[in-house]
C-alpha cells in the first residue's frame, strides 16, 4: 500500500470516460448500482444508530426523576437539563478532567510513538523486529485483559511496581496508587499510552518507509544537515500520517471509558475520577437520570465534532 | 570504533530495552498465570515460572461449571457473525464510493466520518432502550447488529483504499476484450482485493472480540461475552484475597488467541490501516 494513491479527480476521469464510452446505454442507470451497493450499510447504520441518536436528542429535553422510575411518563422540560448542567460545577470539573486527560494522553502517545518510529528506522533488522513484536503484543491485548494485568502490576500489596520502587528505597510497599485521584490518573495515563503507542508508532514507521532514500541522499549531497533533512523533507512527507493519528488519538482518548471504569472498580473513588464516559454511565445506568445523561452525551458529541471538524472539512475538500 | 557505530549500538541497545519494557506486562500475565497462588502471595515477586504448572488454567475451566466455555461460545458467535456481515456490507459500500460517482456520494462519506466520532458511551442508554423495546435485550443477534454498525464505517474507509489501489484500467482492458463490467470486476479486481479483505476482517474481528461497553450494558446474567466474563471473574475473585494466579490465567485465555491471530496477519493489517486511513 502506498500513500501516494491516484487522486480522486483522476479516478473520476478513469471510471467515467472510458466506461461511459464503452457502454453508453448504461449511463442512465449509473445511480442505481451504487445506491444498491450502499443500501445495506445504510440500513444497518440506521437500525443501530439512527433511532438511538434521535432518542438521545429528544430525551435530553426531558426530565427523569423518581416518579419515572415507577412508570410515569417523563416531562418535557426544554433546555432545563442543559441549563442545570452548565450551572453545575461538577460537570465542568469532569469536562476539564476529560479534556486534560485526552490532551496529555494524545500528545504523549504521538510524541513517544514518533520517537519509537524513528528509532525503528535507525536500528538494524533484528532490533527493529524485536521492537515491532513488543508493540504488536501490547496492541493486540484485549482491553479488559490489559486492565487486569496492569491492576495486578500496581496492586498495593504485592504488585511489582511497589516492589521495584521499594528496592530503590522508596518505601512504597502497601501504597495504594488508585486511592488518590492524582496517582489514579497517572496510572491511567501510563496504561492508555502503553496501549495506544503501538498503533501510532507502527503507522508513523509505515509513513517513514515511504520517504525515498534517493531524495534524502540528494539532500545530503547538497549539504543539508541531519536536522534540516528531518525538518524539511521527512516531516512534510509524514505530516498527513501524524495529523491523522493525532486526531484519532484525541477522539479515542476523549471517550475513554473501559479503562477508567475498570480502574474505578479496582479501587478508585468514582466521584473523584469520573470522566465524561463514566459520568454518563453513572447518571444513566446508575441513577436512571436519562435526561441529564443524554444532555451530557449531546455535549460530548458536540465537543468531539468540534475537535475533528477541521480534519473532516479538509478530507471533504479532497473529495471535490 | 567510529562515532557512527557507537551511535548505532547505542540505538540498538535502546530499542531492545524499550521492547522488553513494553512487553513486560504481557510477560507478567503469562508468568503469573503459571505460578501457584502461594508463590504470588509472597512479598518478593517471582520473575521466572520455574516449577510452574497449568493448574490455574484447569481451575478457570472448572469455575462456575465451565462458564468460560459458554462465554467463549457467545464471543465466537457474535464475533464471527459480525465479521461475515461487516465484510459483505463494507465491501459493497467501498466498491460504490471508489468505483462510482453518484449523487449523495459525498454525504455518504461525510456520514461515515461523522459516525466514527459518535461517542459510543453517549449512546448506550439509547441503544439499551431500543433493544429493550424490540425484545432483543440480552440477545446475541441484537449485539451483532450493534457491533456491525460500529465497525462498518471504518471498514468501508479501509477497504476503499484497497479498491482504489487496483487500477480501473485493468477492468477496462477486460471490458474491451468483451467482458461485462460485473464479469470484469469479479474476474480481475476481486482476486486482487484478498489482502484488503483479510486486513478488514481482522480489524472487525478485533473490534468485536474486545468490545466491552455495549456488551456491559446490553447483556446480562449467563449471557456474557469473554471480556464481560473476565470482568465478572475478577470481581468474584476480589471478594476474598484476590487469586491472582487464576485471574491471570483467565486473562491469558482471553488474550492469547487474539495475540497469536494478530501476529499471523499483522503485516497486512498495519499497512491496511495506514493505507486506508491516509488515502484520499
UniProtKB/TrEMBL annotation, chain A:
Chief location category: membrane
InterPro entries the record matches: MetI-like (IPR000515), MetI-like_sf (IPR035906), UgpAE/MalFG_permease (IPR050809)
Region (Disordered), start-end ranges: 1-22
Annotated Gene Ontology cellular component terms: plasma membrane
Membrane topology: Multi-pass membrane protein
One Pfam family in the UniProt entry: BPD_transp_1
Keyword Membrane attributed: yes
Domain ABC transmembrane type-1: 95-311
Membrane-crossing residue ranges in chain numbering: 31-53, 90-117, 129-153, 184-211, 232-252, 290-312
Family: Belongs to the binding-protein-dependent transport system permease family.
Name of the protein described by the UniProt record: N,N'-diacetylchitobiose transport system permease protein
TrEMBL record, chain B:
Keywords from the named record: Cell membrane, Membrane, Transmembrane, Transmembrane helix, Transport
TM ranges: 68-96, 108-128, 140-163, 184-206, 244-265
Pfam short name (any one): BPD_transp_1
Entry GO CC: plasma membrane
Compartment(s) of residence: Cell membrane
InterPro entries, A to Z: BP-dep_ABC_trans_perm, MetI-like, MetI-like_sf
Annotated ABC transmembrane type-1 domain residues: 72-265
GO biological process assignments: transmembrane transport
Protein origin, superkingdom: Bacteria
Keyword Phosphoprotein in annotation: no
Main location: membrane
Protein family membership: Belongs to the binding-protein-dependent transport system permease family.
Protein known as: N,N'-diacetylchitobiose transport system permease protein
Species in which this protein is naturally found: Paeniglutamicibacter cryotolerans
